[in-house]
Design a protein that fits this description.
CATH architecture of the largest domain: 2-Layer Sandwich
Strand content: 15-25%
Helix content: 25-40%
Strand order of the largest sheet: 8-7-6-9-12
Number of domains: 2
Number of strands: 17
């Protein structure tokens, strides 16, 4: 593995993924960096602040090498990866770097219009509908935290419809007083359609089907892959096939139009990761829960210790988990080592090739995933290595997430975790945590619900989003 002079803190894990010997876990790199800074005796405080909607401000405090230390230049990579993670975990249109001016200047440069992280800056500007900015100050002059945690869902009264829009299928359920009386799953191809009318018609057809199973409809709640603010579509891979001009005219306000078609009854749609976490919290009666769904991409959502949603993005598909600069890059952001390449159908396909499995590239990623899962059922050693590798990734990444979330429960979902392959992922991840991170193993519980309860639970959670006055 090629390394430059600033990558000396990358750490080879004790449990090496059998199909990826160059994996360098973010959690180990961060730990080594912090230990070396402490031992140097020449540290400087550094605070990273991100500001999102409604003045919500959150900070992350750490320490870096002072200017007098020979490793000062290593600060740039360390802080850059932290800023990247925090932006996609918490979201923000504004970043404040409180610390050595050279570090703040570096971050400001790479998030400029032509910088290496221009993609991230552009998406954050689009999400929050305001210019993305990076400010530089000292650690003692950063703005104070201001949180905006609020209750989410848990309204089970009346007749409700819950829906979930995924990349390969859409689900809908009719819910009466907290009980699912009907559910349906339909295969669809949202990314392959450029006509907004297709999306409107598909969603309306699902809602009408569920409404036919209820005496009336009091409220509609839904989840979908992407970022949604006040029912407006900000960023969503589901609609990547729609031209930009049509997106602005027809997709941005799609759910407002659907709400009008239902006589403006209470209607809420949010990110599918948040609903995943809410469903887990409701079904398990626990909080401090991070829900992870490994499907066509990586979705995540978090419920805090009070049972509230903090208002963070939790778009961990873009959050780095592997610090090896030569690690896989995702096609959308062009950045390396991000979660989507390790915990999704894309990861299974990528690793299957490494394992020497010849997959039919004319089949969809979901179909190829199923092919590999069937090979696991048949005992194919190559396929077993695919899921064992993902399990190693996951073990180190759970510990990484635990550095950024107050975490007691990890809910694991998604097609990638189905069947024997999923069992291998969980078993391997638990082994990594127990041996490498015993403190995390004692605190964090991994939960994998059965498929039936997951689907019904997700539908009920989505349906519970709106409050009926």
């Amino acid at each position: 593995m090629k390394q430059n002079q600033h990558d000396w803190y990358l750490v080879k894990p004790r449990k090496v993924p059998c199909l990826d010997p160059d994996f360098r876990p973010a959690v180990l790199a961060n730990q080594r960096f912090r230990d070396e800074v402490k031992e140097s005796g020449k540290s400087a405080p550094l605070v990273i602040v991100v500001e999102a909607d409604n003045g919500m401000i959150s900070s992350y405090k750490t320490a870096v090498f002072s200017r007098e230390d020979k490793h000062f230049d290593s600060n740039f990579n360390y802080v850059e990866r932290l800023v990247k993670f925090l932006l996609w975990q918490r979201g923000g249109w504004r970043v404040v770097i409180g610390g050595p001016a050279e570090i703040g200047g570096y971050i400001k440069g790479i998030y400029a219009a032509k910088g290496k992280r221009a993609f991230d800056a552009g998406l954050m500007a689009e999400v929050y509908a305001r210019p993305f900015t990076v400010e530089v100050t000292t650690a003692d002059k950063v703005p104070p935290d201001r949180q905006n945690a609020k209750p989410l869902g848990r309204h089970l009264d009346g007749c409700r419809i819950g829906f979930d829009l995924g990349a390969s299928d859409r689900k809908v359920a009719a819910v009466k007083d907290g009980q699912a009386v009907f559910s349906e799953e339909v295969v669809w191809d949202p990314k392959g359609h450029s006509d907004p009318q297709y999306h409107y018609d598909e969603i309306m057809a699902a809602l009408k089907k569920a409404a036919g199973q209820l005496p009336r409809v009091d409220a509609i709640g839904g989840s979908a892959a992407g970022i949604y603010v006040n029912n407006s579509v900000r960023i969503a891979s589901l609609f990547r096939g729609v031209p930009k001009d049509l997106f602005e005219k027809k997709i941005r306000g799609l759910f407002h139009d659907i709400k009008k078609a239902w006589n403006n009854i209470p209607f809420d749609v949010i990110n599918d990761g948040e609903v995943t976490a809410l469903a887990g919290s409701m079904s398990l009666t626990v909080n401090s829960i991070l829900g992870i769904a490994m499907g066509s991409s990586l979705a995540a959502g978090y419920v805090d210790k009070e049972g509230n949603v903090i208002g963070w993005l939790d778009e961990l598909a873009f959050a780095p988990v592997d610090y090896n600069p030569q690690s896989p890059t995702d096609e959308w952001s062009g950045d390396y080592g991000c979660g989507v390449m390790y915990f999704s159908q894309v990861a299974v396909n990528r690793l299957a090739v490494k394992a020497g499995i010849m997959l039919d590239d004319k089949r969809t990623l979901a179909e190829r995933l199923k092919d590999v899962q069937e090979m696991v059922n048949d005992g194919d050693e190559r396929a077993l290595k695919v899921f064992e590798t993902i399990g190693v990734y996951f073990g180190y990444t759970i510990a990484h997430y635990a550095d950024f979330y107050d975490l007691e429960n990890m809910l694991v979902l998604g097609r990638v975790t189905s069947g024997k392959g999923g069992d291998i992922i969980i078993k391997t991840a638990e082994e990594v945590i127990k041996t490498e991170f015993p403190a995390v193993a004692r605190k964090v519980r991994l939960v994998v619900p059965d498929e039936a309860s997951r689907r019904v639970g997700q539908a009920i959670a989505a349906a519970s989003l709106p409050r009926v006055k």
